[in-house]
């Protein structure tokens, strides 16, 4: 089965598997069963076995999976060997935190350029990342071959920005604003809505009988 | 149908509906169709109509939904009239950003206490929120009747902290560490894994033929 035929839910679990396998390898473990994996990553073992089967990674009964082989395999799928340059637009509190964080646990992506309208920080380096003016957006995206943008601007500015990003050739947007962005089919948006996460959690703890997913 | 019988996916969309209805009301709009809602929140109209039907909120053909009535109704479900006190543990970069952010768009939750091991900030007020030592955790959770905790500590400290939180009576954890927490059934965990969001996005833009959700 070709890689691009795997279900979306499976694809979303790949980075989690990858990071856990990395951890196992660091701790000297050479093999792992789907039950052990299930215990660690909190998906059920049947889901894990099905996920792995999409990639033709079949464990051996009584042996399990070879940690290093599986990790290298997922690493290739996740493209861990190349480094993707990412732009961050909006260096407010959340933007600043993401610059400091800069996806340390990930080896395949790095924020290489930040953008803001605040003259006080334009042309400075924040947490190792240069901050450019908004006027430099298209030029830097082209020069640095940036394909992914993190949007941490105020909601009112988000749609105009998304239009500019799409025109500049951005393929993926990690959207931290509560606004649902309107983008062409060539752009994929991943929404990270922190208020929504909290409200959903509050809703669930106040409605404890709700069926689990 | 009782509120607690609604599907999890529907429950997760409620805060999004609620916020958008709020926006509509602010802009003076009194009614809205499921198609307009669909365009704005990017779920399809059939999904929206099905979601609303769980709550007995049925639009009238050719009229749509009454914005204010629907908003008040969802507000009650989401418990917008009460203010939930939330603890934040780990005032690093991300923790600090969340304190500053403090879920402004939400009217039903507020971080009321932060905790850290850093002596330099213990007993100070950060972004309006008092920072306590980790020794004060259980006392403050009890005193402030806190039921939800945001975990922004380093991964290595996360499981021990989750154990303490569960013992202290916390019912919900918003987990920003990549670690999958082991908690009793009485505690609900919502994972916000920023590295994972970015890696998933990278994966999808590199595998463009992947079926959309």
UniProtKB/TrEMBL annotation, chains A, B:
The name this protein goes by in its record: Redox-sensing transcriptional repressor Rex
CoA-binding domain: residues covered: 79-180
Classification via InterPro entries: CoA-bd (IPR003781), NAD(P)-bd_dom_sf (IPR036291), Rex_bacilli-type (IPR058203), Rex_DNA-bd_C_dom (IPR009718), Tscrpt_rep_Rex (IPR022876), WH-like_DNA-bd_sf (IPR036388), WH_DNA-bd_sf (IPR036390)
DNA-binding region(s), residue ranges: 16-55
Lineage of the organism: Bacteria, Bacillati, Bacillota, Bacilli, Lactobacillales
Family matches, as SMART domains: CoA_binding
Residues reported in the UniProt entry to bind NAD(+): 90-95
GO cellular component: cytoplasm
Role: Modulates transcription in response to changes in cellular NADH/NAD(+) redox state.
Family: Belongs to the transcriptional regulatory Rex family.
Annotated gene: rex
Assembly behavior: Homodimer.
GO biological process: negative regulation of DNA-templated transcription; response to redox state
Keyword annotations: Cytoplasm, DNA-binding, NAD, Repressor, Transcription, Transcription regulation
Subcellular localization(s) per the UniProt record: Cytoplasm
Pfam families: CoA_binding, Put_DNA-bind_N
Signal peptide stretch: none
Primary localisation category: cytoplasm
One example GO MF annotation: DNA binding
């Amino acid at each position: 089965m070709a890689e691009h035929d795997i279900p979306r839910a499976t694809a979303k679990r790949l980075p989690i598997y990858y990071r856990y396998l990395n951890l196992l390898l660091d701790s000297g473990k050479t093999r792992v069963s789907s039950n052990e994996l299930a215990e660690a990553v909190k998906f059920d073992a049947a889901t894990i076995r099905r996920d792995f089967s999409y990639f033709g990674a079949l464990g051996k009964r009584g042996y399990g999976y070879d940690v290093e082989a599986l990790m290298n395999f997922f690493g290739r799928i996740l493209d861990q060997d190349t480094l993707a340059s990412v732009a961050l637009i909006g260096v407010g509190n959340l933007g600043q935190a993401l610059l400091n964080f800069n996806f340390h646990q990930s080896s395949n992506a790095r924020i290489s350029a930040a953008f803001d309208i605040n003259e006080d920080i334009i042309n400075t380096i924040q947490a190792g990342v240069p901050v450019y003016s908004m006027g430099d957006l298209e030029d830097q995206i082209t020069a640095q071959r940036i394909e992914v943008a993190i949007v941490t601007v105020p909601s009112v500015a988000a749609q105009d920005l998304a239009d500019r990003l799409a025109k500049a050739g951005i393929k993926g947007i990690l959207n931290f604003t509560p606004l649902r962005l309107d983008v062409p089919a060539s752009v994929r948006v991943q929404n990270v809505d922190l208020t929504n996460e909290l409200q959903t959690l509050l809703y669930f703890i106040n409605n404890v009988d709700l069926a689990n997913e």
